[in-house]
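Example complex used in Figure S2.
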Amino acid sequence: MKSSAFILVLAVALVPFVIPAERKCQLSGLWRNEQDSLMEISALRDNGDFQGKYLTRVTLTGGCARTSPLKGAQQQPGEGGWPTFAFTVRWDKFSNATTTFAGQCFVDSGGKETLSTMWLLREAVGSLEEDWKATRVGRNVFTRKRTPRGKNLLSSFPSCEDTSSPAP
Ligand code: BTN
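Predicted assembly (168 residues):
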């Protein structure tokens, strides 16, 4: 009797080492990148489509950003693999540029999720002669940002227009 109780206790104690942490990658939720930009992705549809909001911390002009809509799609992950995805942000009102991101979700052995992405930022130019300088390329790495229950992107990180004091 005593030995079976000991085996039970031992088995319970070993569970975390035997069963790995959740390795699945969920795109939905709030994410922050190394530039301190935030994005909030809503629940994915059955076909992998998703929508969300993006609040960039940096802008081409250095001016105020506004929360902007994003739309994307996640590839169906293969067995045990992590999904690739792409999304587009249509910068809303403060800019006529567009950015597309393509990336993949990874989960480390501790369960930490990372979105590794590359982006193309296209700004509008006035003529075809200026086309050569209209597209920038870069990389962003996003990690999940936890927010207190009931809080959303806007309440956790207001855009600079929301926080700036009114003109005199
Ligand atoms: C603009 O300034 O005209 C639009 C905003 C561009 C923000 C870029 S998109 C790629 C990079 N990652 C970010 O989070 N922000 C910048």
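Strands lie at 29-33, 38-41, 49-55, 68-74, 84-90, 98-107, 113-122, 135-144. The first strand starts at residue 29 and ends at 33.
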